[in-house]
Write a structure and sequence with these properties.
This protein has one domain: Rossmann fold, CATH 3.40.50. Helix content is 35%, strand content 17%. It contains seven helices and seven strands. The longest helix has 19 residues. The chain is globular and about 60 Å long.
Length: 184
Amino acid sequence: QIDRQCRAGNWQKMISGDVYGKTLGLVGLGAIGRAVARRAQGFSMKILAFDVQWDARWAEDHQVERVSLETLYRQSDFISLHVPLLPETRMMIGEKELAMFRAGSVLINTARGGLIDESALLAALQSGHLAGAGLDAFEKEPPENPLWFSLPQVVLGSHTAASTELAAREMGRMALDNLIRDLS
């Protein structure tokens, strides 16, 4: 929003939202969910999480509270998805779930397209129920609905959140490590 205003020639100071002290809900607490949790702690965020393979020790060590999906949806200011696309996670966020979200919350999906009913999300954004969304994955990429490109409260990515030089080197290293392990 600030970038858009500056590019339009408006250099007036804006009052914006803050993440300090807000509640982050993580759906999936694998390697990426855990990395997000550690970063959120730097902003004094309260962290709620849901994962089917709960690691109680890690969660306790990192002050992450285990909750149901319904509780996570109702109590989180920011909800970030970190689960694979499986039959049981396909369309896990639909109209019913979005209605449970706290008014003014933000949904972030850097995981997989197909986790969210995109039509229901558009409706929740257009109605103002959700303050915004950060989306790096869509069921069909690029998304066909032109509304995604016109909503100012939506930040879009082309499923490149992990496309960095370091990530590419790490993927190569892991592939080589796996090959060596399998050949040993």
